[in-house]
Design brief:
10 helices, 260 residues, alpha/beta, 6-stranded parallel β-sheet, TIM Barrel, binds ligand YH5
Length: 260
């Protein structure tokens, strides 16, 4: 899954304006590099980020989805928590909802049910603005598992079938470095829930911290190591910035996993 951020700080036209053409070019490039899904996100969910008003998120995301859905041969996912953005994005051509709030906003469960597309449910402790202020768990792996199982039940009770669901432990979302490392090492316990696992570690601060505060642009090799570890522990999809290098890593893992 290739990440396509459609926030004003990405794909600027040189000024302060977002360039639709540049975003579409990046999507084409990721397809050429071997991406199987493009994840379009218009709300920054980084630690400390403010939430984006509904109309602004719609204005960012919907035109991009419309344009790339018309010309790109792979599924498009929308990274959003807002029911209205889910509805308009699917109408514009998105085929997957990627919700870091795991359908906890009012109306989100109903929107996902009505749209009947697959949904990725991600674990997050707290909310983006405050989530990195000393997160506390008894047993992070067990608690993430219980949370995800509870969200699966909420989906089923709303009429969303299990077959439509993917799960994600939410690396970096309300987790310290030790929490993230425990989740990566014990990812099998989350995979054992029995639904496909999506993992987002690419360039995240856990990689930077392990590598002595390496800046974002030097985190590729560390991100690849983490992706390989996740795949070996049962991950089905990795959400990444660097598609071509990740596809090589995936092919090495897949070739090895194919041996009896
Ligand atoms: C995720 O894990 N993450 S947005 C901080 C960074 C780098 C990247 C430089 N959406 C996930 O990608 N959806 C995001 O430090 C996600 N799983 C799913 N399913 C945050 C992000 C990032 C944040």
């Amino acid at each position: 899954m290739g990440i396509l951020n459609v926030t004003p700080d990405s794909f600027s036209d040189g000024g302060t304006h977002f360039s639709l053409d540049k975003a579409v070019c990046r999507a084409r490039e990721m397809v050429a590099e071997g991406a199987d899904i493009i994840d379009v996100g218009g709300e920054s969910t980084r630690p400390g980020a403010q939430s984006v008003p509904l109309q602004q998120e719609l204005d960012r995301v919907v035109p991009v989805i419309e344009k790339i859905a018309a010309e790109i041969p792979i599924p498009i996912s929308v990274d959003t928590s807002k029911p209205q953005v889910m509805r308009e994005s699917v109408a514009a051509g998105a085929g997957l909802i990627n919700d870091v709030m795991a359908l906890r906003l009012p109306g989100a469960l109903q929107a996902a049910r009505d749209l009947s597309v697959p949904v990725c449910l991600m674990h997050m402790l707290g909310e983006p603005r405050f989530m990195q202020q000393q997160p506390v768990y008894g047993n992070v792996v067990a608690e993430v598992r219980v949370f995800l199982e509870e969200r699966v039940r909420a989906c089923e009770e709303t009429g969303i079938s299990r077959e439509k669901l993917l799960l994600d432990p939410g690396f970096g979302f309300g987790k310290s470095l030790d929490h993230n490392l425990a989740l990566l090492k014990n990812l099998r316990a989350i995979a054992d829930i029995g639904l496909p696992l999506l993992i987002g570690i690419s360039r995240k601060s856990m990689i930077g911290k392990i590598l002595d505060e390496r800046p974002v642009d030097g985190r590729l090799f560390g991100s690849l190591a983490a992706a390989v570890m996740a795949l070996e522990r049962g991950a089905a999809i990795v959400r990444v910035h660097d598609v071509a290098p990740t596809v090589d890593a995936i092919r090495v893992v897949a070739a090895t996993q194919a041996v009896k």
